[in-house]
Amino acid sequence: MNRKDILNMREWREIFETLPVLQKFFSGDPDAHGINSFLRGVAIYMERLLANVDEGKPVVWYNLGFNSELIYALDGVSPLTIELPGALHSIIGNNRNTLDFIDGAQAVGIPADCCSADKIAIGAIHKGLLPAPVCTVGINTPCDAQVLSTQVMQELSGAPFFAIDVPYYHNEETIRHVAQQLKELIPFLEQHTGRKMDYDRLREVCEISNRTTEAIWEWLDWRKQVPLTQSSKLVAFTLILQILFTGSPEGLEIARALLREARERTERKERFFEERVRAIWYQDPVWTDIQIYDWFERELGLTVPVDIFGYYANEGLIDPATPDTMLYGLARKLVNCHPMARQFRGDMDMYIRDFMHLLEAWKADCCIFAGHIACKHAWGGIGLFKEACRRAEIPLLVFEFDMFDPRVTPYEDVYFEVERFVNEIVYPRKLRG
Amino acid sequence: MSEAEAILGEVRALIPRQTNRYVDEWKASGKPVVGYFCHYVPREILLAAGALPLRLRGVGSEDSSRGDAYLSARVCTYVRHVMSLALEGHYDFLDGEISTNTCDHVRRSADVFVKKTAVPFHGFLSVPRTPRESLYGYYLGELRKLVQGLEGHFGVKIGPQELRQAVRTLNEIRGRLRKINRMRLEEKPKISGAEALSVHIASQVLPPGVFADLADRLIPALEERPGLDTSRARFVLVGAELDEPEFLEAVESQGALVVADLLCFGARSVLNPTDEGASDPLDAIGRAYFFGSSCARMIGDFGRRWEELKRLAVEARADGVVFERIIFCDPWGAEIHNILQRVKKEAPFPVLSLTREYNIVPTGQVKTRVQAFVEKIEIARAQKAASGGGR
Question: How many domains does chain B have?
Answer without folding.
Answer: 1
